[in-house]
Amino acid sequence: MLVISFLGARCGVVVVMKQAKDTTSGSAKRGLSTALARGAENGMDLRRAALRQLLPIGLTFGLVVLLWQRAGGLDFGYIYASLKTVSPLQWLGAALFSAISFWALGKYDGVVHRLIGSDVTDKAAERAGITAIALSQTVGLGVISSAFVRWRMLPKLSLMQAMQISAIVAVSFLSAWAVVASLVALTVPMTLPWAGWVAWAVLGGATLFAGLSVLRPSFMSSLHIPSLRAMCAFLALALIDTAAAGTALWMVLPDGCDCALLPLIAAYLLALGAGLISSAPGGMGAFEVTLLALLPALEAEPLLAAILAFRTIYYVLPALIAAVVTIRGPRTDRQTDHGASRPTLTRLIKTPNLPAHVAKTVAEAPRAEAGLLRHGRLSFLTTSHGQPKAMAAASGQSLLVLSDPLSKAINRKDLLADVQAIARRSFLTPFLYKAGGRWAAAARRAGWQILPIAREGWINPTTFTLDGSAKRQLRRKLRQADAAGLIICEAGAELPLPEMHQIAEEWQRMRGGERGFSMGSWHPDQLPHARVYLARKEGQLVGFLTLHENLSEQALDLMRMRADAPDGTMHALLTFAITQAARQGCTRLSLAAVPLDDQKNEPWVFHQTRQKLDHISGAAGLRQFKTAFAPQWETLYAAAPTRAALAFGALDVTREICRKVQTGS
After folding, report:
1. Which GO terms describe its biological process (predicted)?
2. Is residue 208 within 8 Å of residue 4, measured between CB atoms?
3. Quick check: 139 and 316 in contact, CB under 8 A?
4. Which of 63, 94, 359, 377 is the most exposed place for a label (fewest CB within 10 A)?
5. In whole angstroms, what separates CA 623 from the centre of its chain?
6. Where are the alpha helices (DSSP H) in 365-486?
7. Positive or negative torsion for Cα 313, 316, 319, 320
8. What is the assigned CATH class of domain 458-640?
C-alpha cells in the first residue's frame, strides 16, 4: 500500500506540474460552475468525486451506531466529572502541542509546493495548508473540502490544481503515516495480532521504494518518484505531527486515567489511521472505537472525556479559526529582499529558437556546448533578474550542473551557493559534471569532493598542421579517404535532410538509439544553429559532422556515417572542419570530452558507471580517433558536497545519458 500511495502521489505531481504554469486562466475565472466543467475536461469529475464519499459516510454512520450502542452502558455523569478534572495547565499544554502538530502540517504543504515547482511562496502555501486541514478534518470530505479552501487561499491556483495538490498531500501523508505507525508498532508492545508482520511488510515496501528512487529502472521512467530527501522530509513531518497530536491527547487525560506517553501515541496513530481511512468528519466513530479497543486497560468514561477535550482543542478550535481565515481570504505576502533575489531553475521547452536573453548568453558562453540548451532536457539556473548562470537538470537524487558557468564574469563562489540553495529547496544534492579546472577548484575550496572523470581535447585551428609523428595515423586515414574518392564540403542552406535522416537512423540501429543529456543527438530542427559538413562518394551522402558554434569556440557535436563508409571518412570531415574554422579566425575547436581510462583506487560506483559509459559511447574508439589529431588535453571533473552525493550524482548522470531520447525526422 505504501508503494502504491507514493506512486499515486507522484503521478498526481505530473499533472499539477503540467498545469501549474496556467495560473492566469485559473485565476481569471474562478466560478464554481466553471471549475466543475474544467475538472471534467481534465479527467476529474468533482461531482463523481463527491459521490464516492458516500461509502465512507455510510461506514461512519455504522461506526457511530456501534459506538452509540456501546454508549448505552456508559455513565455520562462520570464522563462529565472526568472532563472537569482536566486542569487549565493541561488545556494549555494540549494547545501548545496542537500548534506544533499544525505547524508540521503546514510545512507538509510547503514541501509539496516545492516539489512541483509552484511559484507560491512558502508562507502562503503553509498558511493555506494549515487552514485547509483545520477545516477539512472537522467537516469531512477531506480532499474535496481542503481543495476548496486551498483554492480560496491561493488565488494563483485553479480549483483543479488545488484538488490535485490536496490529493498529493493526502496520499503522501497516508504513506508517511504507514511508515511511522509501523516503526512505532515495532518499538511499542501492541495487543493487535499480526501487527509485527504487517509493520515489517510496510517497512519492506518502503525500503524497496527507496531503492527504486535511487536506481530508477527504465520501466519506471515515466513515473516521477520523490527523492530520498523528499521522502525523509515527509516522514520527519509526519512523525512530528502525529507525535505532537498524540501528546496533545495525552496532556488532557483526566484524573484516574493513567497511561504512559508512548503506548498512547501508538494507539493514537492506529486510531488516526482508522479515522483517515473512514473519511468521516474528524474520523468520528472510527477513531473512538479503535482507541477504546486498543486501550482496554483504561476506563471508557475517562478516556472518552479525554477524547472530547482533545477534539475541542485539536478540531473545534482550529476549525473556528480556519473558518475566519478562509472568510477573510488570502493575504498578500511582502517579498523580502532575500526572497526576491532567490535563484531559480527555469525549464526550457525543446525548441531551436531560445528566448532572446538565453540565446545571447549561449552565443557569449565560454563553451559552445551551451547549445545543448536547445535540446529541451536542460534547464538554466538564473539570477533574480533572469540572467542565465549555468546549465542544470534535476534527476533522481541530484541537481546536475553541466559544464562550466555560462559566463567567465560569474563569481564561482556565489554560483556554488546558488546551486546549493536550489538543490536544497528541491530536496536534491548538487553535482557538478564535466567541470573545468577553475570551476572544480572553486568547489574544492568550498569543501566539496572532486574526482577527475574525463578529458577534453581541443585544437587551435589557426596553428593546426598535419606535420609531426603524432599525426601519422591521421595522415594515413586521410590518404585512404582521398583514395576512396570522398568529396567533403560544408552544407549550405538546403540540407539533404532525407539522406542525413537515413544515416542517423542506421547509426541509431547499430548503437541502440540516441543518447541524451550531455551527448549529441539527432535533432534536424536544430541544424540551422550548427555548422554542418558532408561527405559524399559518387554523389551519395556517406557521412556528416556537425559543430556547435558561438563567439568563443566551435565544438564537436554529431559524427554520423554509414556502416559501409570508406575508412577515414570522419577523419576527413573533421580535418576539413578545422581548415574552415581556421579561415573564419576561430582559435579554439573542441573535440568534446571522452571518459578517462580506468583509474586506480576510484570508488566502486564510479568504476561501474565509467565502464557503462565507455560501452554505450564507444569511448575506446573515440579516444583513438581524437588522439589522431594530437589535441591539447584538459581534465574535467565531477564535484559534490560529499562522497555519497558523488555516488548518487554518478548514477543519475549515467541514467540520463543511457536514456534513449526521442529524435526528430
Report:
1. phospholipid homeostasis
2. no
3. no
4. 359
5. 34
6. 412-425, 437-445, 472-483
7. negative
8. alpha beta
Q: Name the pairing type of β-strands 632-640 and 449-459.
A: antiparallel
User: Exposed, middle or buried, 632 (CB in 10 Å: 0-12/13-18/19+)?
Assistant: exposed
- For the residues of 451-488, what is the DSSP string, one character each? EEEEEEEEE-GGG--S-SGGGHHHHHHHHHHHHTTEEE
Does domain 340-450 fall under CATH 3.40.630? My reply is yes
The rounded distance, in Å, linking the Cα atoms of 575 and 520 is 20
Domain ranges of the chain: 2-20+42-328, 340-450, 458-640
Block means of pLDDT (10 residues each) for the chain, 665 residues, are: 37 39 42 50 52 52 53 74 92 96 94 88 92 87 85 89 90 92 87 82 93 84 85 95 96 89 92 82 82 88 92 94 91 54 79 82 92 85 78 93 92 92 94 95 95 93 95 95 95 91 90 80 87 94 95 94 94 96 95 82 72 72 92 95 93 84 57
Which helix H or strand E contains 41, and what residues bound it? helix 32-41
Distances (CA, A) of 366 to 363, 433, 555, 594: 9, 16, 11, 19
pTM of the model as a whole: 0.83
Q: How many CA atoms lie within 13 A of 349 on its CB side?
A: 5
Q: Residue 330: exposed, middle, or buried by beta-carbon count in 10 A (0-12, 13-18, 19+)?
A: middle
The answer to whether domain 340-450 and domain 458-640 are alike in fold is yes
DSSP 75-90: -HHHHHHHHHTS-HHH
8 A C-beta contact, residue 182 and residue 202? yes
